[in-house]
Structure formats: structure tokens, C-alpha cells
Amino acid sequence: MKIKKMTALLMTAAMTVSLAACGGSGQSTGTASGTEEAGSTEGSAQADNGGNVELTYMHKLNGTEKYVGSDDINNNVYTRCYQDELGITLKYTIAAAGDDYTQKLTMAIASNDLPDLMDLPPEEFSELANAGMLADITEAYDTYASDLLKETIEVDGGVQLASAKVDGKLYGLPQLSAADGTCDLLWIRTDWLDNLGLKAPTTMDELLEVARAFRYDDPDGNGQDDTWGIGFQKDIVKEDGASPGSYEGFFAAYGAYAKAWVKDENGQISYSGINPGMKDALAQLNQMYEDGLIDPEFGVKDTVKLGEDIAAGKVGMFYGLEGMPWGACKSNIENDPEADWQCYPIVSATAEPAKPITYVRISRYYAANAKCEHPEALVKIANVFQDKINSLDATEETLNTFGVDPSTGINFAEYAAFAMDPAIQKCNTYYKEIKETLNGESKVEDIHPEAARYYNVIKNFLDNGSDKGADSLGWNYYKFIGPEGSWNTIINDYKANDKLVQSVFFGAPTPTMSTNLSSMDKMQAETYVNIIMGTQEPDTFDDFVKSWKELGGDQITTEVNDWYNTTFGELK
Ligand SMILES: [Ca+2]
């Protein structure tokens, strides 16, 4: 069985190898643009089944694309499909990854040499949409978007789609982030809990007890004083925290978040990084630091370094996202098959339940040039990925052809001109199907073929006596989408009990954010670290709040509220 190579298809929320992930340096496949559009006669509804339409496209690559034979970005299973099924020939005038793409995009905008279709980061999208340089695709979307595409893109009630509108007109399709399914959980070494006869904490006081025991009571039984109670990394002021070692799950115990914009019951939006609960949270972290529960080197450890400590069996608890079984925890159980990890709901320090924060992060918008004669092509192209990969009618064959080839591990989905994974619906569906199949209530032949892939991996792990060392991939899936995996906690605790809080601001930065935010973030991060390490008294938090407001915070707060009211005025 080539299970190792059967890299999970998608599940963007949880996967380290994410379809939408930006790659490093990519290659460009041509730059000449030349002609504007070509192909069939006018009439925007006539692109399919008949005359062929050629459209130029500026596309951001992941940088990880691998091709078979003589295929390339202009000729592959997706471009041939667009041609055969839609009569659309895509000509990639720019196809690059990372900074290379950003540079080419900046140049194309500066020289007003934009292709028919394009990938745009939020800031550039907003700029071009407001300048009238993008096609209004409102009607094209209404007419041509398949039910599945609409269902996928409007999964959040149309919130992210609304960010692609100006004056009620739609100018692009957002690459959705899997908000409201990606949030902090408390990950704990359960073998250490067992060794010390402890239970998983349900309150902050209990968490402190466990952290103390993990630090001082030799949880790994090697007779050495060599373990930390709870792991944190250096990036405190960061959306989603940085995982592993996020602070957002910890701050949430005090009703605070480092980087979130939260709406109150009166509809007012405020920045939670200056919330009074944050002062209590930082004071508590300072106490833990003083008590030796936190690695004093945390301020110079990034997620990779913390991951190495976790993998080496030095850390017994941390806050992190639902996909944590894939990273350091996997390395840890591979190094030490006795090790085991389980996620738990985050704990509260107050009488209120702790509510994890989720962030919307739209990486890019797919848009059409205002001069493009066939803007509807954008929508038709977007339908394809849904049909081939995300439809309940998808088969093993379509998944292998348009997704990951199980024999080579090549992810053909990376070639898609527009790919969007309904990660949350998928996780919900697959979780349920896998659980039912494990319980004998469903047959593996009857569940979604992608769910069946994960089921088989999990079943293999369970049948082999749960040998984590021998089947770390099976352990991964079990801990993520198995009956007691992280997804179970998210839907059966966080969602079922209405605990998730969504940060409501996303998209292009506001004007004052563009000019002032990076220095404000820096000041915030320094204040937090100094308070934790005791070089500043917790009471200096109040001075920080005052400075933050004066240095642009009050202005940004006004801008965020204006943006929200303008963007979602009709929606709410
Ligand atoms: Ca020890």
C-alpha cells in the first residue's frame, strides 16, 4: 500500500500541504502579453460548446507544482478540460509564485498591461475594483455559478463574498479561508498525564497544576529535570496566533485576543489586543514565567524551534490549531512511539466559557479585466474544480485525475486556475461518514471516495494495534478526523455550544493600517513580551493602551467600523 504517498487531497484547514499555500520561488512561464482577447464573436454567453475563446490569465502558482511528461501550466489536465468542456483556452501570460508573482503583478498594474483574468491579493483587488478596472461579474455569477460553487463560496452566509463587492456589484471571487473551522485547541501529552495520574484540565487553575507537574514531576520518567510545562513561541501578535505555541487559546481564557477585531452586542467593533482581559492574561503568563513553567528562551523560539522541542519530547502542552497532528506531534510519536497527544477544548480563567477566536484570511481574489469580453469565463472555470473534486458525484477516478495521483503523489489540483476547497463542509461530512463506517453503520463503498481514503488510513492504524510508530499517518488522521479527533472538538464542543468568535475585519488594510500598523504591532508585541518576562510591570499595559490609541488605534478603529458598515450594510 502506498499510503504514505496518498497525501491528503485537500482539507485546507488542517493540512500542512495546503492547496492554497503560497510557495517559495516559482518559475515564470512567459511574460509577453500582446493581444488583449481573441476568439469567438461577441456575446458573453456563447463561450461554451462551439467557438473557442482564448483568454489571457495572470496566475499565482503555489511553487510546488510538479508536471507529468510534457505538461506545463499552459497544457495540463485542467487546461485541456477547460478547452474540451467549456471551449475556453487559457493562456498564462504570467504564472509565478511568491514574491516573483508580486513583482510581476506590480509591474503589470503600473504599465496597465492586465490580462483578461487575474489573481489579485486583497489590496490590489480593492484598488482595481474601486478604479473601475475590473469587470462586474454580478450577472455572470448569478447565471453561471453552479449550485455547488455557490454553496461553497457562500458557506459563511455571503460574508466573504460581500468583501468582493463595491456598491453592491460583484467584482471577483474570493479565495475563501476556512474561517470558523480553524482555531486553537489545547494539545496535551496524554502519556504524561497518565504517568503522573493527572486529568486533562478544564479550568485555568487545573491547567496551571498540570503545567507545574509537567515541569517539575518528571513526566517522562527519565529522572532528569528536562521538560517544560507548556510551550509558547515568540510571535504573540499574529492572526491565528502562530501554531504550535499560539497564545490566542490562552488569552481567550480571559476573554481577550491579540489581533482580533470583535463586534459587541451594540454592533461596535473594537480591537481585542487592548482589552482589559489581556492585562490579566499577561500578568498570569508573567507569573508562570516567574514560576519556571515557561521556557525562558521562548522569545527567540519560532514555531519551528518550538516544534523541535515538541518532537524531542520536551513539551507536554501547547495551544495550536486543529491540524497539529501533522507537524511536531507526528515527529514526536515517530521519535517515541510511547508518546501520545490528544486535543482538548481551551479552558477559561473566569466564570465565562473560553471562546476560541477564528480569523478570515482571504489570500486572493479571482477577477476579470473590465475590458474582457467574457468575464463569465471566470465563473465557468470556477465551477470545474467543484465538479471534479468537491461534488458528491466525484469518483476515485476523477479524484485521481484532478486531485492527487496516489501512485506518484502529484497533486494535479495545483494546476486548477481557480480552486476552492469547502474544507469545513468536507470535514463535517467526512467526520460523520468515517465515524459511521467505524461503527459499522455505513459501508466504506458507500461513503465519499475522499472520505474512504481517510477511513482506510485510520482503519489500518486501528487494526494494527494502534502502532503509532509504524503508522504515523494513520495516527494523524485518527487525531484529526477520527471519532475523537480535533474536528470532533470543534464541531461538538466549540460549534455546538456557540463558542467560536469570529474576528470581523479582513481584506485590504485600511488607510491608517497601511501607514501605522506595523509600528503599532511592534509596540504591542514588545509590551506583551516585556510584561511576560517581567521587564515591565503588568500595570504598564494601561500606558500601552493609551499610546496605541494615540498612534493611530482610534483612527483605525473608526476605519474598521466604517469598512464593516459599508461592506456588510446590506448583509446585516
Ligand atoms: Ca524528565
From TrEMBL:
Signal peptide positions (record): 1-20
One Pfam family recorded for the sequence: SBP_bac_1
Domain of life: Bacteria
Keyword Cell membrane (UniProt): yes
Keywords: Cell membrane, Lipoprotein, Membrane, Palmitate, Signal
Residues covered by region (Disordered): 26-51
Keyword Cell membrane among UniProt keywords: yes
Name by which UniProt lists this protein: Lipoprotein LipO
Species: Eisenbergiella tayi
Upper taxonomic lineage: Bacteria, Bacillati, Bacillota, Clostridia, Lachnospirales
